[in-house]
Amino acid sequence: MATFLYKLGRLAFRRRHFVALIWVALLTLAGVGAASAPTAGASSFSIPGTEAQKAFDLLESRFPGMSADGATARVVFKAPSGEKISDKDNKATVKKTVKALGDGSEVTSVTDPFKAKAVSKDGSIAYAQVKYEVSGMELKDSSKDALKETAQEARAAGLTVEVGGDALQATPETGSTEVIGIAVAAVVLVITFGSLIAAGLPLLTALIGVGIGVSTITALANALDLGTTTSTLAMMIGLAVGIDYALFIVSRYRAELAEGREREEAAGRAVGTAGSAVVFAGLTVVIALVGLSVVNIPMLTKMGVAAAGTVAIAVLIALTMIPALLGYAGRKVQPAGKKSKLLGGGRAARKASKPNMGTRWASFVVRRPLAVLLLGVVGLGAAAIPATSLELGLPDDGSQPTSTTQRRAYDLLSEGFGPGFNGPLMVVVDAKESDAPKAAFTKVSDEIKDLKGVVTVTPPAPNKAGDTATITVIPDSKPSSVKTEDLVHAIRDEGADVKADTDAKVLVTGTTAMNIDFSQKLNDALIPYLALVVGLAFLLLIVVFRSILVPLKAALGFLLSVMAALGAVVAVFQWGWLSGLMGVEETGPIMSMMPIFMVGVVFGLAMDYEVFLVTRMREAYVHGEKPSQAIVTGFKHGARVVTAAAVIMIAVFSGFIGSSESMIKMIGFGLAIAVFFDAFIVRMAIVPAVLALLGKKAWWLPKWLDRALPNVDVEGEGLRALDKKRLDEDDDRELARV
């Protein structure tokens, strides 16, 4: 591995014009593809294998034209204080508004509140439901504008009017903090390298890699049904790893220059050594992201594969374009420790001979390993405590800020009709195999009415064939409550009895039931996903480190990081701690996909730092240093760079906290805090403490396994053999001349 990458690095350095041309051509091609591709609609959301999805599919076939997945708007009217919505003027305004709502080109139906009995008991609140033929993300701007203008006209007539539902669903915005994150990364790179040119290389290559990745996703979005969240996630992870991978190779290049090597040779060795770590670090991230397909939720699979593709591009760019750009930079990228005009070179030169911060910290940990280990574990354990109160769910209008019309409509409906009205359940009765379909419909309706927690059950609404009917059930609890989830399970249990008596199938669907099934599917997939991802990465790390205990320690450290990060997410987004600082206007349940998503991404990123830091220790140990000294050597060369890489990754992820999309905001915060915990507590404190306690045992590997494993040569032993061969050839030539 090291020898191959060494040759690749030298080739890219020599043929830099060709390499640069290839990447620029790929960026141009991807950009043209993105610009010419048709505008992508909303990504379809489906959960194969769940009851809610089966019911949706059944509705599509039995109720053609129903547009079960079409957008819905609930226009809620409230009469002025002391008046009723049925008063003459108010009723006329509502009727006029309903007529205007039905004029839209994409509208399939509008319900009249007075005909549908959609008026509250006290007569002050009513609502009209508007159904569209396309989803909220596919809805034309003209339809959304018409909806807003119609509501505004009703407000002008004296009514309080708010619009809920997904018809006003907006495209998420990331905000200006994303740019701030990149700016922070640039500052950290300048401080690390003391040179604008050296600092600019990782930023440039990361932006090119992300540009290619995101443009490709945009070009394929319509054909592959990719949503906006997919490209945002790819951008988030691609930027972070792209900068980090380039940073490690540029740092190693400067270190090789400091040892007196020629620039082409230094570039080859940087790619051969640090590049090997980049390859395996990238592989762990790709495994973790692609492994999301185990969950069998198409949206999550697409997000993971797209992000993994961007990571793969980042690895390839780091291995090829970085040495090419180093060739262009020439002497503008100086050896490590040389004077810097930006940061005061004289002072840097005087400090060069003194132990750096990484050396001093590693020496301290080696002397006090048990105390450091206990302090780190206890600290992360305390941070993880809030995770014990984790509540999972999916965001609805109730989690929107109170300043939005969707949230105000949600509150008005709760006030007029009860909290469960915002999460109605749709029960689908399939009586195609039943001898008495009508009797089956009635039996299901009567059984549901007797269940605890039910407020209203609408009469069965059969299709034209008379073999399938829908029944709407209004719970007495809000959509995200445990009581509503219990009611869904109770209806499904009753459905099993109905099936036995009438041969009719009972399926529960609707947004609330879909969310419940989604959460359950993710929970069921968590253990298999952990086993697959951690298992594959564990095997990969055994090959890299040729050790059993080091990969085991890496996996256990990751579990500490992810639990502590989940605890922080719960504290901020569920409990409300520091919510104002994070721009969280409304607390609520943690998104269902957050735990499994964090497990995947954080594991991949955690292994990045494990590989970068510990391979340097392994390299020192293989070259003859004692275990304790190898730890210090690893920190001497790697601590500063790993610290810079972690700060950059934290800055990039934190930049997405400003997104208007709650999922992106939560993911950005969760990944940022997870990287902080993993890089600065697990990898920089717990890892050296454990290695110090283990001593030589850390690098133990059974002989039979050592013989069976392939030698990937991450430590660069092949390069040493290459040096020896060159020396022997030089000696032979010298003898020949004599």
UniProtKB/TrEMBL annotation:
<keyword id="KW-1003">Cell membrane</keyword>
<feature type="transmembrane region" description="Helical">
    <location>
        <begin position="526"/>
        <end position="549"/>
    </location>
</feature>
<feature type="transmembrane region" description="Helical">
    <location>
        <begin position="271"/>
        <end position="294"/>
    </location>
</feature>
<feature type="transmembrane region" description="Helical">
    <location>
        <begin position="370"/>
        <end position="390"/>
    </location>
</feature>
<keyword id="KW-0812">Transmembrane</keyword>
<feature type="transmembrane region" description="Helical">
    <location>
        <begin position="179"/>
        <end position="199"/>
    </location>
</feature>
<feature type="domain" description="SSD">
    <location>
        <begin position="196"/>
        <end position="328"/>
    </location>
</feature>
<keyword id="KW-1133">Transmembrane helix</keyword>
<dbReference type="InterPro" id="IPR000731">
    <property type="entry name" value="SSD"/>
</dbReference>
<dbReference type="GO" id="GO:0005886">
    <property type="term" value="C:plasma membrane"/>
</dbReference>
<feature type="transmembrane region" description="Helical">
    <location>
        <begin position="669"/>
        <end position="694"/>
    </location>
</feature>
<dbReference type="InterPro" id="IPR050545">
    <property type="entry name" value="Mycobact_MmpL"/>
</dbReference>
<comment type="similarity">
    <text>Belongs to the resistance-nodulation-cell division (RND) (TC 2.A.6) family. MmpL subfamily.</text>
</comment>
<protein>
    <submittedName>
        <fullName>Membrane protein</fullName>
    </submittedName>
</protein>
<dbReference type="InterPro" id="IPR004869">
    <property type="entry name" value="MMPL_dom"/>
</dbReference>
<feature type="transmembrane region" description="Helical">
    <location>
        <begin position="306"/>
        <end position="329"/>
    </location>
</feature>
<feature type="transmembrane region" description="Helical">
    <location>
        <begin position="638"/>
        <end position="657"/>
    </location>
</feature>
<feature type="transmembrane region" description="Helical">
    <location>
        <begin position="556"/>
        <end position="578"/>
    </location>
</feature>
<keyword id="KW-0472">Membrane</keyword>
<feature type="transmembrane region" description="Helical">
    <location>
        <begin position="230"/>
        <end position="250"/>
    </location>
</feature>
<feature type="transmembrane region" description="Helical">
    <location>
        <begin position="590"/>
        <end position="609"/>
    </location>
</feature>
<dbReference type="Pfam" id="PF03176">
    <property type="entry name" value="MMPL"/>
</dbReference>
<feature type="transmembrane region" description="Helical">
    <location>
        <begin position="206"/>
        <end position="224"/>
    </location>
</feature>
